[in-house]
Amino acid sequence: MHLFDQAIALAPLAEGRWQGRTSPEYANLVGPYGGILSACLMNAVLSDPRAAGDPVSITVNFCAAVPEGGYEIATRQIRAGKYLQHWSVELVSGGQICTTASIILAHRGADYSHQPVTAPVVPPAGECDLLDMAPMPMGWLHRYDFRFVEGPPPLSGLPTGGQGPARSVNWVADKPARPLDHLSLTSLSDSFLLRLFHVRGTLVPMGTVSMTTHFIATCEEIVEQGTAPVLGVADAIRFHGNFHDQHMQLWSASGKLLASGTQVVWFKQ
Amino acid sequence: MHLFDQAIALAPLAEGRWQGRTSPEYANLVGPYGGILSACLMNAVLSDPRAAGDPVSITVNFCAAVPEGGYEIATRQIRAGKYLQHWSVELVSGGQICTTASIILAHRGADYSHQPVTAPVVPPAGECDLLDMAPMPMGWLHRYDFRFVEGPPPLSGLPTGGQGPARSVNWVADKPARPLDHLSLTSLSDSFLLRLFHVRGTLVPMGTVSMTTHFIATCEEIVEQGTAPVLGVADAIRFHGNFHDQHMQLWSASGKLLASGTQVVWFKQ
């Protein structure tokens, strides 16, 4: 069983109640990597017998660090219509709500299709160097292969007084390889280091407070992607008053937008 | 009292319970304009005596059309920490949850500030023509002054077989003028017509299912903006399988990013 699937595994407790457990393999500096938590919340909804359709949207709010050990997830169906389902999800640990999420599923059909924006033109993943993440202490960074095409993270810092670019473009894939699905895509949507680190090159107190991902690709396209790396683009517009925006796109190897999203990041100093 | 403030007015019923009412002035094709609903949900949290800090994030999930008439809003504080508060909000009408939201407030201080992306270079609002929205039936469109710099909506349709650009840039202001605050900024974040209409020029069945806005500007900057128009940029990357993404930025008259966000839109045909 892949480490990713182990990390998001859930035991059903009752209708709409699930037991999960933090995984040191996907640890962040404080608590679990947000992507693995998001994938676990998505897994709870997709595992619910009432669930119908594929993921369209997930918003995850990181209210408090999830302590190491077991946690409980509650899935609540808010509405189930002809095309769409709305779910609210809460993760509780130590008697406290640590994470909330809203998740939308939908039945999709073949319909109007148009992609006015093209994927960045970059060399194929096989021609790009693997980034050595050894200097970084976070476990989750070692669960992915990163190959940067533009704006690699300044792992050894920046020249004094300098500011790096907020934008980065990179190939990314599960390590070891795992065929793409909506669960791994949910996790990948958080696989971009915080833009504050890209710009400043130092690890000051910072963390994502809310993250939203919208899924545009259909199941067929995700299956077609297989274990090939996906292309990630991330950028930020403004850092101000202890917060910055961060937006991202994930593109298939064949240049289709799989998902796009945004997060808002708190920082201090 | 400004029509906007009338439309988002709430009567307190008990701790965390509020009574509101739909306003024909801000009607959409079906149900209320999403921006006015979002502002009303934000108003409920900001009116709660337990609220502390300024808005940082709002995600609104449109689960069902809100019927004309009265509705009730429940505000629930999920977590209140030193810097941040997390809230969950539900709007109920006719015994059904029609809208859910998660809202984050924060205390902000003066800290690192950096804006690597500059606002689009455009003529000042005073030099741009007002768009005549008379052909459009939705009430809310008449509550704003729109002045397009790029990609005006194809109100009279597109040549057969043609596709318009998804991207638009426009000045927008409350009509009549009203000093900007987080409530009107919340509403303005939804003031972009759906990109599917920009691209296809026809009103097929479509609607936003989830919308997220992140606020980067501080209160001082919002006050400083006063009644001046804000500059809105909206775009979409891909329309596929009954959904499209739509992202936006709202810039101050002096070129600062006030807010950015994303929505996911369902469509059929």
Structure described in brief:
The structure is a homodimer of 269-residue chains. Chain A has 269 residues and is mainly beta. In chain A, 14% of the residues lie in helices and 38% in strands.
Protein traits:
homodimer, mainly beta, 5 helices, about 270 residues, 13-stranded antiparallel β-sheet
Tell me what you see in this structure.
Two copies of one chain form a homodimer. Helix content of chain A is 14%, strand content 38%. With 269 residues, chain A is mainly β. In chain A, strands 1, 2, 3, 4, 5, 6, 7, 8, 9, 10, 11, 12 and 13 form a 13-stranded antiparallel sheet that branches. The model of chain A has no long low-confidence stretch (mean pLDDT 96).
* Secondary structure tally, helices of chain A: 5
Weakly predicted, low-confidence segments of chain A? none
- DSSP strand (E) fraction of chain A? 35-45%
Report the sheet with the most strands of chain A, covering strand number, pairing sense and barrel closure.
Answer: 13 strands, antiparallel
- The rounded distance between the terminal residues' Cα atoms of chain A is 41 Å
* Mean pLDDT over all positions of chain A: 96
Helix content of chain A: 10-25%
Oligomer: homodimer
Number of strands of chain A: 13
Radius of gyration of chain A: 18 Å
- For the largest interface in this structure, which chains are involved and how many residues does each contribute? A-B, 67 and 67 residues
Give the overall form of chain A.
globular
**Class by alpha and beta content of chain A:** mainly beta
Give the topology string of chain A: H per helix, E per strand: HEEHEEEEEEHHEHEEEE
